[in-house]
Here is the input.
Amino acid sequence: MKRRHWYIIIAYIIMQLSGIVGVPLLRAIGVGSSSADEYTANSVASGYWAVISFLVTFLIILFLLKEDIKEQYNARHRASNVATVMWAIGGFFLALFSQSIAATIETRFFGIEPGSENTRRIVEIIRLTPSLVIVTSIIGPILEEIIFRKIIFGSLYKKYNFFIAAIVSSLLFAVVHMELEHLLLYATMGVTFAFLYAKTKRIIVPIFAHVTMNTFVVFMQTIFADEIEKIMRQAEHVQFIFGGF
Here is the structure.
């Protein structure tokens, strides 16, 4: 692995751990002080620190990736511009499909409750600090694709076959999300994004699919949350009627 890639990984790890210091620091200068309770105050501070830390790390990583961007531009065997657009759009639907399959397996075969505590927590913080949407929908997915697909998967793919590289990088991707009960779900997403990268040789493809998917989830669980809840209640009612019949 190239030295600058190690620097990128180190920067990413520091960012993930920086909240230990950053959140108390924001609390100390009064961020979240107007909140009704301590939990809400910490959530507000966590949201703002996430925006700050992710944005700073994103700029640092872009600087470190200057050489990679040049190499990517001059790389051979890349997908054409038309194919790139098609795979990027299709990748979003492929990601949704693979996620639904993994979620079904988790629920029916392993008895895991649907839904993500991590997602619920993030949505809760977004409602308190709307600017966090920039992180969850754009900056976060871009950083994850750079770390787990371009660097980790890309480095492993040069030495091993696709399946080994994809599985190892995807398991790391899953573990970082700290929801081991949904290991299959996150790993499946990781393999899907790795496939898109390997197929097109363009990191922008899994980035687009990941950004689009996260944006879709955020919009569904914030802006359209009430409508979805109504639909779910209606669906449960219909299921009850047909089941009773």
The chain is about 80% helix and 0% strand.
